[in-house]
Amino acid sequence: MGNNVQILSRPFGRPDDFEKVTQFVQAVALASTNSTQHIHAGDIAWRFFRSAQFDPKAAVQLWEEQENGTVVGLGWYSAAHHGLDMIMLPDMRDCGLDKRILRWGDQRFRSIPFKDRGYAQLKVQVLDWDAERMTLLSEAGFRQDMFHYVWYQHQLEEKIEVPTLPDGYEIRKVSDLDVAARAKLHNKAFFSGDVSAESYYKLMQTDIYQRSALDFVAVAPNGRLSAFALGWLDAERKIGIFEPVGTHPKRRQLGLAKALLTRTMQEMQAAGMRAAQVYTESPNQPAQRLYRSVGFELLGKQFDWLKRPA
Questions:
Q1: Residues 219, 226: contact at Cβ < 8 Å?
Q2: What is the pLDDT of residues 151-195, one digit of tens each?
Q3: Which residue segment(s) compose the domain that 228 sits in?
Q4: Residues 38/302, Cβ–Cβ less than 8 Å
Q5: 3-state SS assignment for residue 296
Q6: What is the CATH number of the domain that holds 163?
Q7: H helices of 63-205, where?
Q8: Contact 74, 61 (CB under 8 A)
Q9: Are residues 77 and 184 in the same domain?
Q10: Is residue 162 situated within a structural domain?
Q11: pTM confidence score
């Protein structure tokens, strides 16, 4: 793509923008030479619909070709975490688009009153293979932090066995009748309150969920949902991705998450996926032990880069 291409920027907000964003993210993944991606189409759906309070018009900025409206870049600013996602087609880096997205994110960060952001720092996450992005951030005054996400991958070539569940437990797919309980379970597992029955139902109605989601839960003998694994199929790259995976605090150490992971990978395998991927925070050692215990191997790391405003 030549440097003479005219690129315009605008906030998210048109009726077809969600579909354009998911298609763009998939195009970025297909164009990349590395199988580890910062964000995937299923993650986009999860971010959009997990919380009824999310406002994409304030969080998402699109960069498009002026001639045909094709999305070539995206900035996603999270006010809650002061984090900036910078996503673009690989050949757009030659046009300096990464610098434009970074400037937009910095402006969004600085626009938040000091009383609301305090001494927070602007955060950009970078995969460990992306030396070009690291150089850009370093020159812009960012520094690499110790905190990172750990990516794991499991090849799906051999038969996958599901471990035996505790007596009375079963694994099944989420149905419309489970929406309220599924939302409540997520909040319990992650000690949060941002997922509602309304927001989860909206997620389940999206085309991408209908096409590619593998949404499994472990159910206790009393009928209560106890653990979950939401997998997403990337049919073009043949990769299945987990986001999120969790267990009710009172149902941990029962092998439920291990059974859910393996059951979902069976479905991924049957759908033609060649590998499964999952990621977790570097301090979360229990999750890392879980993933290794079912055969996941280290794929890469994604570090926080931080910058304090001058």
A1: yes
A2: 999 999 999 999 999 999 999 999 999 999 999 999 999 999 889
A3: 158-273
A4: yes
A5: coil
A6: 3.40.630.30
A7: 97-111, 114-117, 131-139, 179-189, 197-205
A8: yes
A9: no
A10: yes
A11: 0.93
> 266 and 212 in one domain?
yes
Q: Largest alpha-carbon pair distance within the chain?
A: 65
> What is the C-alpha to C-alpha distance for residues 187 and 194, in angstroms, rounded to an integer?
7
**Tally of domains within the chain:** 2
123 contacts: CB under 8 Å, gap ≥ 6: 81, 82, 83, 84, 304, 305, 306
Tokens for 213? 């989601």
Kindly give, in sequence order, each residue whose CB lies less than 8 Å from that of residue 134, ignoring residues fewer than 6 positions away.
126, 144, 305
Cα gap 159→202, rounded to integer Å: 34
Helix (H, G, I), strand (E, B) or coil at 58: helix
| CB atoms inside a 10 Å sphere around CB 138 | 12
- Taking the C-alpha atoms of residue 75 and residue 87, their distance in angstroms, rounded to an integer, is 6
What is the structure's pLDDT at 300?
A: 94
Residue 47: phi and psi, rounded to 5, are -65, -40
27 SS3 class: helix
Residue 126 covered by a domain? no
Alpha-carbon distance 199 to 215, whole Å? 15
Describe the crossing of helices 285-293 and 256-270 by its angle, rounded to 10 degrees: 50
Residue 168 per-residue DSSP state: T
φ/ψ (deg, to 5) at 115: -65, -20
Q: Which helix (H) or strand (E) holds 45?
A: helix 41-49
- Residues of the chain short of pLDDT 50, as ranges, are none
Give the 3-state secondary structure of residue 15: coil
